Amino acid sequence: MICKTSMKKVLLLSELFVPPYDEGMKVTALNLLKGIKHHVDCIGLGPCEDENGLIQPTAISKILYSKRLRKEINRQKPDFIFYIPEASATLHSFIRYRVLRFISKGAGTAMVALQNREYSSLTQRIITFINPHTLFVPSTLMSDIFKKIGIDTHLLSAGVDIEKFTPVSPETKYALREKYQVPQDKYIILHVGHIRASRNVKMFLSLIDQPEMQVLLVGSTSTPQEDELKRELRQAGILIIDKFVPENQELYQLADCYVFNVRERSGAMEFPISVLEAIACNLPVLTTPFGSLPENFPASDDFRYFTTSEELKNELQNMRNCISKTRERVEKFSWKNVANQLLGKCRVL
């Protein structure tokens, strides 16, 4: 059910409001808050405040309910509340969202689920009984999963900060490689995300026999990393940055190509933000046909799909000579536009 009433004040509630913001779901929560604020009065509620005063620190219990949260909702008197659960579309997330609807005091509510989950038949029946009413998802795959159990959804794309993530000159790229001690004479292949087996990062080992190429992995500090896997990758010659980098756009700007090789649905958000950050920096992209990527980005010379290690090698060779124009695809994915899309579907003015 979509709310048909004009809104003047909006709350965005999430357990993801905890720095550092170096992981896709955290980035989404914070930047969607900023994007909504371009259009209506919006305040974030979560565990930690931020330096710009966008987030009101509020205790959130495991079942979401707390006297402080209820008091804050009563004080703010919102017309609408969005909830972005840290665990995405788990059963517990739907239970917490049901609690939010109970304490929302007549405000409209919607839940945004960013990552696909698998459900037993019992869990499906419980979610159907809970009936989330207004649920936003990033891919038709997730939409179809919920449709099969009688739940309507609405599509919402991911976004990117198009002012932060921009192309740079060759001179700036040279300086950035000096700054991060990345080889100047090699074709730099970048991947950003959790250093876990579920991200299929071992596939990069198939590229170590390419002396003209250098793989650079940038790991999120917000989630545990697999240390043994990290050691194996480093010993093979793969460069790894596993510390928080506030100017993370520079890591894309120093690279020549972005590779997203995740296969498991649980390995990433359905609409990977790192791919959007890469194309905002005008990098050519090689990716598996993951989540909502194929429905948003048709294959082209500078945006290609692969499934095997051999295909990855071949496509990398083909892509090295292409002139990338991926930046041209990114405008509609600005956070301001994504927020407007979200609010528009809720008839929020």
* Mean model confidence by pLDDT: 92
Radius of gyration: 21 Å
Largest sheet: 7 strands, parallel
Gross CATH architecture of the largest domain = 3-Layer(aba) Sandwich
Instruction: Give the end-to-end Cα distance, rounded to a whole number of Å.
Output: 18 Å
The strand line-up of the biggest sheet is 3-2-1-4-5-6-7
Number of helices: 12
* CATH homologous superfamily placement of the largest domain: Glycogen Phosphorylase B
- Which outline best applies? globular
Remind me, CATH topology of the largest domain? Rossmann fold
Run of helices and strands: EHEEHEHEHEHEHEEHEHEHEHEHH
Low-confidence stretches: 1-5
Give an overview of the whole structure:
The protein is an alpha/beta fold and about 350 residues long. The chain is built from 12 helices and 13 strands. It has a 7-stranded parallel sheet, sandwiched between helices. It starts with 8 loop residues before the first strand and ends with a helix.
Topology:
Blueprint: E1 9-13, H1 24-37, E2 41-46, E3 55-57, H2 67-76, E4 80-83, H3 91-103, E5 108-112, H4 121-130, E6 135-137, H5 140-147, E7 154-155, H6 170-179, E8 187-192, E9 213-218, H7 227-235, E10 239-241, H8 249-253, E11 257-260, H9 273-280, E12 285-287, H10 293-296, E13 303-305, H11 309-319, H12 335-345
Parallel strand pairs: 1-2, 1-4, 2-3, 4-5, 5-6, 6-7, 8-9, 8-11, 9-10, 11-12, 12-13
Helix pairs in contact: 1-12, 3-4
